[in-house]
Design goal:
By secondary structure, the protein is α/β, with parallel strands linked by helices. The chain contains 9 helices and 8 strands. The chain binds adenosine-5'-diphosphate (2 copies) and zinc ion.
């Protein structure tokens, strides 16, 4: 199964992708996580991507398309995968369709997570992750069970993303509305778009996604 989680920054894509990865055995492919790893490792791709990410702008299509093409060729993707943060432009969506067609595959469902812009800003401003295992948390919406200790791995180290600040969020939301929202009609025309209420609480959103996946 090939599933895309589509939604603005802070919509809950990563949170839900990790849950579905665990419950359904689909590999989560997050271009944001891959790019952050490349930046941290100071690879050629990372060095190119950094200034765009810091400014809240999209990294160029050929860079992210190349990353995804290499990633989906790996063996763990054979049973299906869940794309989180890719595609983000129509050119990326077309490139994805082409690479899948070559393997006789196609996108099974695109799940649009609808969330108001104001809620997104609060979600992003309060977001942090475990530095060891990347589990996601929020200052008010999703705290670890024991304050300061990661539920998943017990680590006490947490990090906040450099681009999760109120200034950069505005450009990221603009990029979403201008460059990514055109994917909605693109996938609607293909009959694969499913829209869910991303304003609901985290468990409710998971239930809505499971309902979509069960119906496929
Ligand atoms: P995305 O991957 O779409 O950018 P995340 O999954 O990282 O978004 O979620 C952004 C922040 O909002 C995180 O801190 C997460 O804990 C929190 N969050 C995710 N889903 C919800 C929800 N349904 N309600 C409230 N907060 C949420
Ligand atoms: P969020 O869901 O909070 O916007 P991501 O982790 O998906 O964050 O992305 C972080 C940054 O990485 C983006 O602002 C952008 O600069 C870059 N990025 C991630 N995925 C893509 C993509 N598919 N195309 C272009 N840039 C991307
Ligand atoms: Zn952890």
């Amino acid at each position: 199964m090939i599933i895309i989680l589509l939604g603005p920054p802070g919509a809950g894509k990563g949170t839900q992708a990790k849950r579905i990865e665990a419950s359904r055995g689909l590999v989560q492919l997050s271009t944001g996580d891959m790019l952050r790893a490349a930046v941290a490792n100071e690879t050629e791709v990372g060095n190119k991507a950094k200034e765009f990410m810091d400014a809240g702008k999209l990294v160029s299509d050929d860079v992210v398309i190349g990353i995804i093409e290499d990633r989906i060729a790996q063996q763990d993707c054979e049973k299906g995968f869940l794309l989180d943060g890719f595609p983000r432009t129509v050119a990326q969506a077309e490139a994805l369709d082409e690479m899948l067609a070559k393997k006789g595959l196609k996108v099974d469902a695109v799940i649009e997570m609808k969330v108001d812009d104001e809620a997104l800003i609060d979600r992003i401003a309060g977001r942090y992750t475990c530095a060891e295992c990347n589990a996601g948390y929020h200052d008010t919406n999703l705290k670890p069970r024991v304050a300061g200790v990661c539920d998943s791995c017990g680590s006490t180290n947490f990090i906040r993303r450099a681009d999760d600040n109120r200034e950069t969020v505005v450009s990221r939301l603009e990029a979403y509305h201008a460059q990514t929202a055109p994917l909605l009609p693109y996938y609607r025309e293909k009959g694969v778009l499913k829209t869910i209420d991303g304003m609901a609480d985290i468990d409710d959103v998971t239930a809505q996604i499971n309902q979509v996946l069960d119906a496929l």
